[in-house]
């Protein structure tokens, strides 16, 4: 019993040390990012850092390059110039996601996919993580519903839960407030703030004034350049 307790303390201490080392650098650092679509230059030498434990909002007018930038930060689009350093894998929550009709997936299936490919875990550990993630985004009651029957905001929350289930610590979201009513926007804001409070780095593209006002850090893009 004594040995087990000591092991648990040593493991926690080790995890704490690893976390301290991990968080001594920014979660994501982008340097001199430039990007063009077929000769149309949309990002010009963008530099930014995303902090641990903070919600950063990427704001700016339509066409400023926000979605392009978040995709580059997530690693799903490669810039023609510049570098992106990520301390860990990211969970990317995109807009307007659906699953193929030929592959009817429930909300629980989609969240469970977040646990695939990671370190091996028992079936009960997988179930526990999925249930906790669904709880954290308030979707537990819809776990058995078809994913495609969810509203846009609920789908984004399911993708957020997918990241939570795989214990992602960097969350990047493209317009999580788009198309949501005021209550849903507030709920999403609270969830993202909660993930940041747990130590995650959260960044979202947003046009929502309340999200911008509540953010720990606002990065304003205009014409493909960072203004602040
Ligand atoms: N796949 C694409 N092919 C060509 N041009 C594109 C493509 N995607 C975006 N663009 C162009 O790149 C520029 C930046 O687009 P982006 O979607 O990144 O802006 P945004 O700031 O996210 O805009 P919004 O607020 O309207 O979503 C725009 O001029 C857009 O027309």
Automatic annotation (TrEMBL):
<protein>
    <submittedName>
        <fullName>ABC transporter ATP-binding protein</fullName>
    </submittedName>
</protein>
<dbReference type="Pfam" id="PF00005">
    <property type="entry name" value="ABC_tran"/>
</dbReference>
<keyword id="KW-0547">Nucleotide-binding</keyword>
<keyword id="KW-0067">ATP-binding</keyword>
<dbReference type="InterPro" id="IPR017871">
    <property type="entry name" value="ABC_transporter-like_CS"/>
</dbReference>
<dbReference type="GO" id="GO:0005524">
    <property type="term" value="F:ATP binding"/>
</dbReference>
<feature type="domain" description="ABC transporter">
    <location>
        <begin position="28"/>
        <end position="227"/>
    </location>
</feature>
<dbReference type="InterPro" id="IPR050153">
    <property type="entry name" value="Metal_Ion_Import_ABC"/>
</dbReference>
<comment type="similarity">
    <text>Belongs to the ABC transporter superfamily.</text>
</comment>
<dbReference type="InterPro" id="IPR003593">
    <property type="entry name" value="AAA+_ATPase"/>
</dbReference>
<dbReference type="GO" id="GO:0016887">
    <property type="term" value="F:ATP hydrolysis activity"/>
</dbReference>
<dbReference type="InterPro" id="IPR027417">
    <property type="entry name" value="P-loop_NTPase"/>
</dbReference>
<keyword id="KW-0813">Transport</keyword>
<dbReference type="InterPro" id="IPR003439">
    <property type="entry name" value="ABC_transporter-like_ATP-bd"/>
</dbReference>
């Amino acid at each position: 019993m004594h040995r087990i307790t000591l092991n648990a303390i040593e493991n926690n201490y080790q995890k704490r040390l690893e976390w301290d080392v991990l968080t001594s650098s920014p979660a994501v650092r982008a340097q001199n990012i430039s990007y063009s679509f077929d000769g149309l230059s949309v990002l010009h030498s963008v530099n930014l850092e995303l902090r641990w434990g903070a919600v950063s909002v990427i704001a700016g007018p339509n066409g400023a390059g926000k979605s392009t930038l978040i995709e580059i930060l997530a690693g799903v689009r490669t810039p023609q110039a510049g570098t992106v350093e990520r301390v860990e894998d990211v969970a990317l929550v995109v807009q307007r996601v659906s699953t193929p009709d030929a592959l009817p997936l429930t909300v629980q299936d989609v969240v469970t996919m977040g646990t695939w490919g990671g370190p091996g875990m028992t079936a009960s550990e997988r179930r526990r993580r999925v249930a906790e993630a669904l709880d954290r985004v308030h979707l537990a009651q819809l776990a058995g519903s078809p994913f495609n029957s969810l509203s846009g905001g609920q789908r984004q929350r399911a993708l957020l839960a997918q990241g939570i289930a795989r214990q992602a610590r960097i969350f990047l979201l493209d317009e999580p407030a788009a198309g949501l009513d005021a209550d849903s926007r507030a709920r999403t804001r609270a969830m993202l703030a909660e993930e940041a409070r747990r130590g995650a780095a959260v960044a979202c593209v947003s046009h929502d004034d309340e999200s911008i006002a509540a953010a720990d850090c606002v990065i304003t893009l205009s014409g493909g350049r960072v203004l602040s």
